[in-house]
Request: fold
Amino acid sequence: MRRRVWILALAAPVIAAAALLASGARSVTASAGQAPASSAEVKIDNFSFGPTTLTVAPGTTVTWTNRDDIPHTVVSDDKVFKSKVLDTDEKFSFTFTKPGTYGYFCSIHPKMTGKVVVQ
Amino acid sequence: MTKNVKDEILHDHNHDGIDRRGFLKCMAWAGTGALCVMQGGVLKSYSLSRLSDLGGRAAATGELCFVQISDSHMGFNKPANPDVAGTLKAAVDKINGLSTAPEFLLHTGDISHLSKPEEFDTVDQILKATGKEVFFVPGEHDVLNDDGAQFRERYGRGAKGAGWYSFEKKGVHFIGLVNVMNLKAGGLGTLGHEQLEWLEDDVKHLKSSTPIVVFAHIPLWTVYPEWGWGTDDSGQALAYLKKFGSVTVLNGHIHQTMQKVEGNVTFHTACSTAFPQPQPGKADSPGPMKVPAEQLRSVLGITDVNYVRGQHALAVVDSSLA
Reply:
């Protein structure tokens, strides 16, 4: 993989700090609640991603939750991130560090597409 | 519910490939499969649920009988069908009860729900009770997480590429295609260049009088692109089959029966043995549809898909539920 990826849904506030530190081992006690802008949700419902376009600040951890009776995946168009198959109620998280537009889709049902705009 | 109603062909005025009765009929035969009979190079298919009505007549006159089943989704346990093993067993019971035993079975994919080894194991175990050879093509649910490695290991049979292959039975050329791999964002099913080249080569030396049966998971005709019910490059595949007088295309994926005739090509989709899906565009999504339990398991005689030759862009063979 080209870049390091953290998938730590509860440790979102750590990411920005950790990114600045080579070790990333520093103890951080802040909870997610203190940094409301640092996490966001996408729901998978009725074979669609909601919201279809999500705009977040750099450092935000986005969590997808599959609420369908059918499994789905979350796969970035440019292979930046790729979930395992998500059965009902399973989640996938990815932290967006770099500004940009990240198109993604469900690789099982490719008509399902979405976008995360990091700015 | 009576089943002594003569079958009829309903033209599809909306050009969407299905009507309400077709939809209802299909809901009621989840758990069954289709018996296919090749007669004079023309394939007819019958719902297993209707065979008691047909008696041995259909099968006995055919040159080749085989059964298509599809979309077993072993491992699915949601309200639409908490017992997909039970409904697959019901399909097997029907197959074993046929007056003329089929030569073999085709399974048009979504064998498993989550590509788990135990899901494939269960299906294999249940289908073993037919004592028949089974030819598989993968559905998108069979190639999760491993790009289909497990599927090819289990069902590869010396297949090429992602698992495509062909074989002959009694003069009929069968072609199993894979259109569930490397799907692109916003796209439909995909065969891909390598597979198309193989197909062109595979049929090049066949006589044009050879009956062709193509089977693949996602429909090779555009049923409803908004739900991904079609294959982007199927046109190219069909172009290679133009010279043949009889081409039958059998698909699954959409969990309901539909039929379309285009020139010498007849397209069929099969119902699932697991759960029904909604009529195209008639629900928010193509997700599993919950129907009353007694209806799901019902195998009363209501579906009989016949080969139709004609000019109609779309035709659904229907029998009344009334």
In short: Confidence is low (pLDDT under 50) at residues 1-35 of chain A. Residues 72 and 86 of chain A are 5 Å apart (CA to CA). Helices of chain A lie at 12-20. The beta strands of chain A are 39-45, 48-50, 53-56, 60-66, 75-76, 91-96, 100-105, 113-118.
